[in-house]
C-alpha cells in the first residue's frame, strides 16, 4: 500500500485564495475553472492511486459498443474514500472544500459523495444534464469539483458548460441519456447562454452547481480520460421529500438514516470544511 508523501499532505492543507471577481463569476454562471488548484506532483500521485482503486472496484464486463449511451459515457465508481485511506486524503482536502464553501458563500460544506468518472478510449459523449435531478436536497447550495488526473485536451472529452443555465427549468426532470441530450441541446440553442468548451491543463479543476447544465464530448483518443469528482453540499443541507426514483435511491445510498426536513448528518456525510 502506498503512503501519502508529506509534501502532498501539506499541500492539500494549503488554502487556495479566491478573489471577489471569481466568486462573482461563479455566482452568475454557476461554474468556474481554476488553475493550479493541484500541483503536478499531487495530480500524478493520485492518478496512480485512484487508477489502481478503480481497477479493483470496476465490475464492467459489457463491451463498449454494446452499452447504452450512459454506459458508453464513463466507468463510474462511487465513494472511493470508504475503500482507500489514501484517496480519502484527497476527498477530505480542506484546500478544495474551502473553495467549494467560498464559491457557494456558505459557512461550511459536507460531503455528498465522491465518484471516479473514467471515460475509456473510444468512449462516447456524456449527454447534457443537471446533476441535481438525482439529489433529494432542499436547496441549490451544491457544488461538484471535477478533478482531471491528467491534462485533458478537447479530444479526450473535457467537461463543457452552459454558463448561467441554472436559471432554466425545462430539462431538469430528465435523467442522463439520449433524451436529455436532444431536449436540453434544443433548448440551449435558442438561449444566449455561452457554451464553454475548453481543455484542462494539469492541475486545473472546475466546480459547478447542481442545476447548471453540462455535458462532455467523446474520448476520441486511445487513452483513458481519468477524472475524480467530489460533490459538496452546504453543511446545513436539509433532506427534502424525494421527487423521483433516483432521488429515493440517492437518499438510501448516499444519505443513509437521514430524515426528511432535517439536516443531513449521516456517518458518510461528514463536514469537510467549516469557517
* Number of separate structural domains: 1
Q: What is the CATH fold-level name? A: Jelly Rolls
Q: Structural class of the helix and strand makeup? A: alpha+beta
Supply the CATH superfamily name: q2cbj1_9rhob like domain
What is the overall pLDDT average? 95
CATH class category label: Mainly Beta
Tell me, what's the shape? globular
* Percentage of residues in DSSP E strands: 15-25%
Low-confidence stretches: none
Please count the helical segments: 8
- CA-atom Rg in angstroms: 18 Å
Report the sheet with the most strands, covering strand number, pairing sense and barrel closure: 7 strands, antiparallel
CATH architecture: Sandwich
Helix content: 25-40%
Distance between the termini: 34 Å
The tally of beta strands, per DSSP, is 11
Q: Spell out the helices and strands N to C.
A: HHEHHEHHEEEEHEEEEHE
What does this protein look like?
This protein has 275 residues and is of the alpha+beta class. It has one domain: Jelly Rolls. Helices cover 29% and strands 22% of the residues. The protein has helices at 6-13, 20-29, 40-57, 69-73, 85-91, 94-104, 178-189, 245-254, and strands spanning 31-34, 75-78, 108-119, 126-129, 142-148, 159-162, 195-197, 205-209, 214-216, 225-234, 271-274. Strands 1, 2, 3, 5, 8, 10 and 11 form a seven-stranded antiparallel sheet that branches. The chain is globular, with a radius of gyration of 18 Å. It starts with 5 loop residues before the first helix and ends with a strand. The model has no long low-confidence stretch (mean pLDDT 95).
Amino acid at each position: 500500500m502506498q503512503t501519502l508523501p508529506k509534501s502532498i499532505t501539506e499541500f492539500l492543507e494549503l488554502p487556495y485564495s479566491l478573489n471577489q471577481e471569481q466568486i462573482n463569476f461563479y455566482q452568475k454562471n454557476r461554474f468556474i475553472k481554476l488553475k493550479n488548484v493541484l500541483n503536478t506532483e499531487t495530480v500524478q500521485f493520485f492518478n496512480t492511486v485512484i487508477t489502481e482503486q478503480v481497477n479493483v472496484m470496476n465490475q464492467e464486463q459489457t463491451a463498449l459498443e454494446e452499452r447504452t449511451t450512459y454506459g458508453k459515457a464513463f466507468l463510474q465508481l462511487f465513494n472511493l474514500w470508504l475503500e482507500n485511506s489514501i484517496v480519502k486524503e484527497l476527498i477530505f482536502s480542506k484546500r478544495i472544500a474551502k473553495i467549494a464553501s467560498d464559491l457557494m458563500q456558505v459557512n461550511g460544506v459536507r460531503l455528498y459523495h465522491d465518484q471516479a468518472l473514467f471515460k475509456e478510449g473510444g468512449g462516447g459523449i456524456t449527454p447534457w444534464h443537471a446533476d441535481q435531478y438525482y439529489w433529494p436536497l432542499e436547496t441549490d447550495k451544491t457544488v461538484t469539483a471535477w478533478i482531471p488526473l491528467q491534462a485533458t485536451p478537447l479530444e479526450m472529452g473535457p467537461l463543457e458548460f452552459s454558463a448561467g443555465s441554472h436559471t432554466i427549468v425545462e430539462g431538469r426532470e430528465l435523467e442522463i441519456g439520449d433524451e436529455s441530450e436532444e431536449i436540453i441541446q434544443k433548448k440551449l440553442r435558442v438561449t444566449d447562454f455561452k457554451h464553454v468548451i475548453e481543455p484542462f491543463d494539469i492541475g486545473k479543476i472546475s466546480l459547478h452547481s447542481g442545476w447548471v447544465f453540462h455535458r462532455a464530448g467523446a474520448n476520441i483518443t486511445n487513452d483513458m480520460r481519468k477524472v475524480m469528482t467530489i460533490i459538496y453540499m452546504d453543511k446545513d443541507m436539509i433532506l427534502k421529500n424525494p421527487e423521483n426514483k433516483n432521488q429515493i435511491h440517492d437518499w438510501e445510498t448516499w444519505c443513509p438514516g437521514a430524515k426528511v426536513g432535517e439536516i443531513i448528518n449521516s456517518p458518510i456525510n461528514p463536514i469537510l470544511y467549516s469557517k
